[in-house]
Sequence to fold (115 residues):
Amino acid sequence: MFAFGSALVQARQLYPNGNLIKPVTVQSIFFLDELFHFVIFQLNTLNYNENTNDKRYNYVWIDKDNYLYDNRPSMILYNPVYGTERNLQRYVLEKLKYNPTVFEKFLALYLQGVK
Fold:
């Protein structure tokens, strides 16, 4: 919803008459604990009526549940195997498997549009 709201505000600032000449694209990265979610929203039209002959559509691309580490045990819920978060940190430092594709996606979204 935040990506859509941001795209809508940008479209209204760029095109006050409501006729979008070029699409407005917004990229968002959300992360919660060990999960990364990537959202890209492309606003092509401000017309939301189904009865019009406008063939332009708005698009959203969502890539959710990307773990930065493949085998990181979660402490979101109590985990009796590790007991405490300190024991979990010891395990993590010894056996962590890094997932480079998540950082590649993050970097691609960050660097997109840089001139």
Observations:
- The chain has one domain: 2-70+100-111.
- The mean pLDDT is 81.
- The chain is about 30% helix and 25% strand.
